[in-house]
Amino acid sequence: MAGAMTLDGGIVRIDRPMPWFGRLLSLPLLAASFYLLWNVALGLRQDFSGFGRLADDLVPVLVFSGLGLLVGIPGLILLTFRSFVVLNERLRQIVVTRQFGPLNFRKSRDLADYHFISITDDYDPELTTYDVNLCGNKGTEPITLQSFAKREDANKLASEIGRVLKLPARDYVGTEPDAD
Description:
The chain has 3 helices and 9 strands, in the order E-E-H-H-E-E-E-E-E-E-H-E. It is of the alpha+beta class. The strands form 2 sheets. It has a 5-stranded antiparallel sheet with strand order 1-2-3-4-5.
C-alpha cells in the first residue's frame, strides 16, 4: 500500500499500477516489430549500397514497415501504459491521467461533486478484490482510485484519503447495492 498513494501538502497522487502480465505481453509484440523493421533496414542498406534496386523492393519495404509499425505500436502502448489520479485539495480538482509513452489523456473533474469514499467488493468468493472509489450524488460517475486484495489495505487507503480531503469513508463490503 505504500506505493499506492503519495501525499505532498494538499495534493494526493494515487498510482494505479499496470498488471505485470500486461507488460509481459508487450515483449513478443516489440520483438516481432523489431524483427520486421530490422529486415526493412537490411533491405534498404542492400538497395543503397548498390546490390539491389529500390524500385524492385519498394512493395516489400512498405509492407514490412507497415506491419512492423502495426505490431510495434500496441506493444509500445502496453509497455509504457501508466494511469494515476491526482486529487488537489487546494484547487478542489481531480485529474485522472492515462499515459502511453509521451501521450497524456487527462480528464479533469470538480472535487465538490464527490462527497464520500466507498469501499466495495466484487462478490467473487474465490478472488475477492476491494475497490476504493470516490463517489458523489446520483448521476456522478464514481472514480475507482485503487483495488486491493486485502480489506485492511483498502480501509487504510480510504481513511488516509478521507483524512486529507475531509470526506467520510463508507464500507459497503458484503452489502447489496442501493437503488440510489
